[in-house]
Amino acid sequence: MVSGANDVATQTVVNAINALLGNYETTVDLRVPSLQKQGDDDALAPAIEEMRHGDIGAVIVYGVNPRIRLRGRRRLRDGSENVPLVVAMTDRPDETTEHADIVCPDHHYLEAWADAEPVQGCYSLGQPTIRPLFDTRAAQDSLLKWIGATPDFPSYLRQFWRSEIFSRQRRVGSFDAFWNQALHDGVTEIEPPPAHSTPLPVAQATRADTLRPAIRAIETRQQAARTALGGGRYEVVVHETIALRDGRHANNPWLQELPDPITSLTWGNCAAIAPSVAAALGVANGDVISIATAGAHVDAPVYIQRGQAPGCVALALGYGRTHAGKVGRGVGANAFPFVRLVDGRREYRVLNATLTKTGRREPLALTQLHQALEGRPIVQEISLASLHAQPVAAAHGAELPLSLWDESESAHHGHLWGMSIDLTACTGCSACVVACQAENNVPVVGKDEVLRAREMHWLRIDRYHAGSDDRPQTVFQPMMCQHCNHAPCETVCPVLATVHSSEGLNQQVYNRCIGTRYCANNCPYKVRRFNWFQYANNARFDYTMNDRLEAMVLNPDVVVRSRGVMEKCSLCTQRIQAGKAARDAEHRDVRDGDIRTACQQACPADAIVFGDLNDPHSRIAQLVRDGRSYHVLDELGTRPNVSYLAKVRNPLEGSHS
After folding, report:
1. How far apart are CA 636 and CA 209, in angstroms?
2. Is 187 left (phi over 0), alpha (psi -120 to 50) or beta?
3. Diameter of the chain by CA atoms?
4. Is 490 left (phi over 0), alpha (psi -120 to 50) or beta?
């Protein structure tokens, strides 16, 4: 169990729960602490005060953007005006560089050497993968030159590892061998954790004199919140999205156009409120409201979110950038003013907020407008108890619907490529969506086109709600071309632009397509995308920061489509062909796992499996025979090669979850 609150009382209670559940030394490891986050805003307060009094002669800002992220940015702004020299070292323009006296362009991390110790005793070493694209210099090289040191940073880094790290490693060998191995692996463990350590004792974590004050503090805070939320007052909670996080990559158009898995919103953030609050305020999706507290004021469009707590308004961070580049500038509202310091720690919630209608509207670029299954078995679920009671192949022995196709002619005797997606494992993180976009040169179309339902993603994450507005159940379902063996799109194309391959792939021949869009109209899964404009090399859709970068974004193994053609998921056919060619060169057959699609490779939950359905020993063939396996809209007789594993829920007796 992980605490999402940044206060000692809540984390004390969570520690006790983990101790009682026996999580320490199993799922919670106290031996190896994470070193990725150290320090806080409060630690900078003395330095900011010295800046305000003119006691600091120069400030160097490296790799951060305090004018956006720092809680005391107003004091920082006032203090920096009294500093004679402000130097910003960064790889991109931002709000801090806009007010710096000198800007030193830094290498991109793919162009630079680096090392880190993210976990105690575990060292990571990074090396350049590309040459510098622009006239930049590593920040470390600049610092070395300014202090008069002779070696460059790679030499300095190598010498540091020789004297400080290699001398502590317990293996026998030369430094050159150790260095080369560390470069190859990217990580090396110098001081492994001890074999035996003392876990947090249950008695210590659950002591009454420790827990009672923590529980009283939580109850006191909750009572204060309930009191503050009365009379038209609300709690504002700010959070990071899966795409932009804190906004440092707001100038990336892939991330701006990535639909949020909960709201399906692109190109901006919103004020998520409960349906009951929306009814009380008389607002609908897209109506702009003013959110005001004692120290902050932000205007944002409304999104009515099922499951949202009635007294809470949620607003995403990372938006409202003023100097983020031509992609991220002016997109959404800045929620950082609602971040505050409490006892030296950041609090991402604030009470006593008021909501006021402004009378303005800002349309929301949503990619999914309907959120209910309406009783249709598109997403299937099963309880854990039912799954244990059901035979393994019970759900896969159903009789196939009648077909007008000649099954003997449509049989595949070689490879039959398919995919299986586990809905229990899928978290809706959308890593597969971005991976597909990068791999297959899927264009970015912008907010105006998304508002017209013309988004181009080959893979989307459908999100459905069931149950009441207060306590809905949510499920995610990745949806792409199902590569039907009896494909409705193939029979209606007048020019044979969409055809079936001998290996079970539904192929799109771009230079045949004349844009009738009959295939899209006939597709029951609505997974085909029409290229309305010349997105490549078109100033209207040029979202790159520099013309020199546009070609580098594109995958040379995949064709760049022109205007007026239909496109959709190809199951990464370029990877299939490359995999087969590599195995031919090795004079052997393709083995299970040799070929991985981009979405499968990017999935952190291993929810996506790709392989040969005709190989009975392959992992996907075994999953298709699983009792949870089903095809979406199987009653239509399309015979898809993409299957799903029903979502497993394990509700407590008497609960509504």
Report:
1. 64
2. beta
3. 86
4. alpha
Whether residues 354 and 387 fall in one domain: no
Q: Within this chain, do residues 391 and 530 fall inside the same structural domain, yes or no?
A: yes
Residue 2 lies in a domain: no
Residue 213 falls within a domain, yes or no?
no
Return the C-alpha torsion angle 313, 315, 467, 476, nearest 10: -170
Range of the structural domain that residue 294 is part of: 229-366
List the one residue out of 362, 237, 361 whose CA is nearest residue 291.
237
69/337 Cα distance (integer angstroms): 9
Q: 308-360: per-residue pLDDT in tens?
A: 888 889 999 999 998 888 888 889 999 988 887 776 677 788 888 899 999 99
From the CB of residue 502, how many other CB atoms can be counted at a distance below 10 Å?
Answer: 10
Query: What's the length of the chain?
Result: 657
Cα dihedral 509, 514, 515, 516, rounded to 10, equals: -110
Residue 345 near residue 41, CB atoms below 8 Å: no
Identity of the amino acid at 538 = N
Place of tokens 């006296």: 101
- Residue 64 identity (one-letter amino acid): V
How many structural domains does the chain have? 3
- What is the H or E stretch that residue 203 is in? helix 202-205
Of 336, 366, 396, the residue at which a domain comes to its end is 366
Task: For residue 217, tell me if it sits in a domain.
Answer: no
284 and 236 in one domain?
yes
CATH number of the domain bearing residue 351: 2.40.40.20
Q: What is the CATH number of the domain that holds 465?
A: 3.30.70.20
- Residue 143 falls inside a structural domain: yes
Residues with Cβ within 8 Å of residue 143, at least 6 apart in sequence:
none
Same domain, 581 and 609: yes
Question: Exposed e or buried b for every residue in 186-225, given b needs 16+ CB within 10 A?
Answer: eebebeebeeeeebbeeeebeeeeebeebbebbeeeeeeb
Tell the burial category of 299 from Cβ atoms under 10 Å away from its Cβ (0-12, 13-18, 19+).
middle
- State the pTM of this model: 0.86
Do 397 and 350 share a structural domain? no
pLDDT in tens, 579-629: 999 998 988 888 988 999 999 999 999 999 999 999 999 999 999 988 889
* Backbone φ, ψ for residue 478 (5° rounding): -65, 135
